[in-house]
Amino acid sequence: MPGSKKYSGKFTAEEVEIIERFMKKYNVNPNQLVKRSVSLAIGYTEYVNLASTDPKFRKIFETVIDESQKIMSNPRILKRIEKKMAAEKISQEALDNLESNASDIDKDVKTLRKKKKPGPKKAKKKRGRPKER
Questions:
Q1: What is the C-alpha separation between 27 and 19, in angstroms, rounded?
Q2: Nearest to residue 12, comparing CAs of 82, 117, 127, 92?
Q3: For the whole prediction, is pTM greater than 0.90?
Q4: What mean pLDDT value characterizes the chain?
Q5: Sequence ranges of the domains in the chain
């Protein structure tokens, strides 16, 4: 078993800004961020692999999703949820704030998920015949 190893990555300026804002907001140092990210990525990848290779697991997962969608589309249940929200004094302003925060998070996640071409940028060649010296 090897000793500890250091991993690094390359990020665009926009990605760096998102990462630094996140670390400052949640008081997370770079090492903690990398360890948490790696554990989440491994867990996510393992479950995706399990869902794609094990038909029984996939069937269970699809059943749970289908049933939860049916429950949430039931008008009686939606009215019950609305009554509970009104009883707990959850205002439209709070819901709008939640939607705004979710939208900001979604925008940051989309930026971080963009696929980038590997390797350095290619230098564009000038058109025409090269000048003689």
A1: 12
A2: 117
A3: no
A4: 86
A5: 11-72, 74-114
Using the predicted structure, report yes or no on whether residue 71 has a pLDDT greater than 60.
yes
Q: What angle do CA 108, 21, 110 make, to 5 degrees?
A: 10
Nearest-angstrom CA–CA distance, 38 and 44: 10
Phi-psi region of 27 (alpha: psi -120 to 50; beta: other; left: phi over 0): left
Gap between the Cα atoms of 107 and 71, Å rounded:
29
3-state secondary structure at position 31:
helix
What distance in Å separates the CA atoms of residue 2 and residue 102, rounded to the nearest whole number? Answer: 41
Residues 32 and 110: their CA atoms lie apart, in Å, by 22
- In this structure, what token pair is assigned to residue 13? 């300026």
Q: How far apart are CA 71 and CA 81, in angstroms?
A: 11
User: 51 is written with which tokens?
Assistant: 């869902």
Yes or no: say if 19 and 11 are a contact pair by the CB < 8 Å rule: yes
State the Cα–Cα distance between residues 47 and 82, nearest whole angstrom.
34
- What is the residue whose two structure tokens read 């000038």? 126
